[in-house]
Design a protein that fits this description.
Elements lengths: L1 E10 L3 H7 L15 E4 L9 H15 L4 H4 L10 E5 L7 E11 L9
Antiparallel strand pairs: 1-2, 1-4, 3-4
Length: 114
């Protein structure tokens, strides 16, 4: 298993929807910042938003296990193998992530219980 590099590409705010449904003073996500980089494999990186992780972890898992164009790209999504562009599931202020497979081997940092 390899590690994946997760880069925050963009934090957004849908002003029209936020105006209608959002709390007063709602802004783009305060947790994630454009340009932040995280590394992950099977576990959520420290400091990463729990909800965002739930939305993207399946892509991290697939890429860390060697998924390529034949697994979830179908030739009509991303042109570069080993990359996925995903977002969190916040409908008012989604954060856009780039997930890239790396060559860095993952290390299990716990002792399995038997």
């Amino acid at each position: 298993m390899k590690k994946c590099k997760i880069t925050v590409l963009k934090t957004t705010l849908d002003k029209e929807l936020a105006e209608e449904y959002g709390a007063e003073g709602l802004t783009a996500c305060p947790m994630m910042k454009e340009g932040q980089v995280f590394y992950a494999d099977y576990a959520k990186p420290e400091g990463f938003c729990d909800e965002a992780w739930k939305a993207i972890y399946q892509y991290v898992f697939a890429l860390s296990h060697g998924a390529g164009n034949d697994v979830f790209y179908y030739g009509d999504w991303i042109r570069k193998p080993g990359v996925a562009i995903c977002s969190c599931n916040d409908g008012l202020r989604p954060v856009i992530f780039k997930i890239e497979a790396t060559e860095e081997e993952s290390q299990i940092d716990y002792v399995p219980m038997r």
